[in-house]
Design goal:
- The complex is a heterodimer of chains A (113) and B (111).
- The model of chain A has no long low-confidence stretch (mean pLDDT 93).
- With 113 residues, chain A is an all-beta fold.
- Chain A is 0% helix and 54% strand.
- In chain A, a hairpin with a 2-residue loop joins strand 6 and strand 7.
- In chain B, the strands form two sheets. In chain B, strands 2, 4, 5, 6, 9, 10 and 11 form a seven-stranded mixed beta sheet that branches. A four-stranded antiparallel beta sheet of chain B has the order 1-3-8-7, with no helix packed on it.
- Chain B is globular, with a radius of gyration of 13 Å.
- Chain B starts with a strand and ends with a strand.
- The relative contact order of chain B is 0.34.
- Chain B has 111 residues and is mostly beta strands.
- The chains are: A mainly beta (113), B mainly beta (111).
- Chains A and B meet through strand 4, strand 5 and strand 10 of A and strand 4, strand 5, strand 9 and strand 10 of B.
Chain lengths: 113, 111
Amino acid sequence: TQLLEQSPQFLSIQEGENLTVYCNSSSVFSSLQWYRQEPGEGPVLLVTVVTGGEVKKLKRLTFQFGDARKDSSLHITAAQPGDTGLYLCAGAPRGTSYGKLTFGQGTILTVHP
Amino acid sequence: NAGVMQNPRHLVRRRGQEARLRCSPMKGHSHVYWYRQLPEEGLKFMVYLQKENIIDESGMPKERFSAEFPKEGPSILRIQQVVRGDSAAYFCASSGGLEQYFGPGTRLTVT
């Protein structure tokens, strides 16, 4: 059983469309991170959300942390082919050592020109 | 400011040999983490170290795997007597606080 459930697992869309990726858990997290990983490379940190209800924007990307700090979402507006990649959410559940990140299984996004 | 460095990027070992993976954290970071990404699986935590101390090794296999982060020099993940199932991408991350920054990974292939 995955502690962090990401959905959808695969997403294939056309350039210009909007999309949302979800990251859900039954556990409470003190913070959640979103990463993007390209093939053959390590994950690159996009954002960290800490406060319940927090919304952070990074250009066309909007990240939200649920009020209860059990879920998060990533919304991309007007997707571009350059957004193609593997998106990962990660966090340390309350009660575990804060450095021990648990990762979702990832969402593979493909944006077609 | 250089990011997290890992070497080698690719490592091929025959069954029974030893594999040594190195990680140099970002400048100023004293926390190092190792993760493993198996084919078709997500990233899994292995071990969390600070200088000269293992903080959490709950994700490390009980046998053949060890990790260190000495006072001087890089962190080392050591796998003894490798088996085919050890083939994976091994990532190191470092932090100075909450956020972890990842290196490019070492891809280990056991033949």
